Amino acid sequence: MLDMLVSPFAMGFMRRALAGCLALSVAGPPLGVFLVLRRMSLMSDVLQHGILPGIALGAMAAGLSLWTMGLGGVIAGMAIALTAGWLSRRTGGREDSQLAGLYLLALAAGVALISAQHSIDLTHILFGNVLAVDDPALFGMAGVATVTLPTLAVIWRPLVLESFDPGYMAATGGRGGLWHLIFLVLVVLCVVSGFVALGTLMSVGLMMVPAIAARHWSESLAGQTRAAVLIAVASSYGGLMASYYVNMPAGPAIVLTAGALWVVSMATGPRASLWRHAAPSI
User: What b-and-e string marks burial along 201-235, b requiring 16 or more CB atoms within 10 Å of the CB?
Assistant: First the structure.
């Protein structure tokens, strides 16, 4: 049994895949917890589609260069997020409707740009290949985690206050817009860093699914963050094991493992679970 649990990682590509997914598991779920808290869960879905045109333009400019595609993705993601907010303020419409329109246009434009370049594999861009993570991609994921965690620690308190009571933050001159902007930059960086491994369609899987599941394990924000990271780490390991032994694509296997842990959390977790509702006095 021990050999079955360890032997797959004797191979270099499996170790790189695990290391990259662990970096995503540490950096992404804390941001996902804040997205859930701020009722911005669908923002992650918008961004994972919105980065596609930037990635496509980066690939057109410099081929499959990780850094060029990543830079294009960051620029496109921030443009989508900021444009949606600007349009909402200028037109008086709901921000979610602006985001929906922008991300659909961005997804269509990205697919059209990539399809026009016959030398670029659209499937690889959309779904990724976690088992093909090379050293530059691994360093990129680790670098994003290294930037995200200290930055989130610095802005933690004002971001919590701005999430719970933005009116008070605005009234006291707390610069809530600045913390919101920094937070969005971190989200975009994590989404872009994950596209190499999980593709643009599932790059937020390790960010959002563990964060949603974590709400069933703790009432405190810090407790939910710890639970989300642990669930993401378990999902990364379990998904790679399933990929190795069941011959399943690694990216979907990781997200499906996270989904299974979410179902278990929703059914049996100590907070707001089906079990708690069935037996409230226990």
Answer: bbbbbbbbbbbbbbbbbbeebeebbbbbbbbbbeb
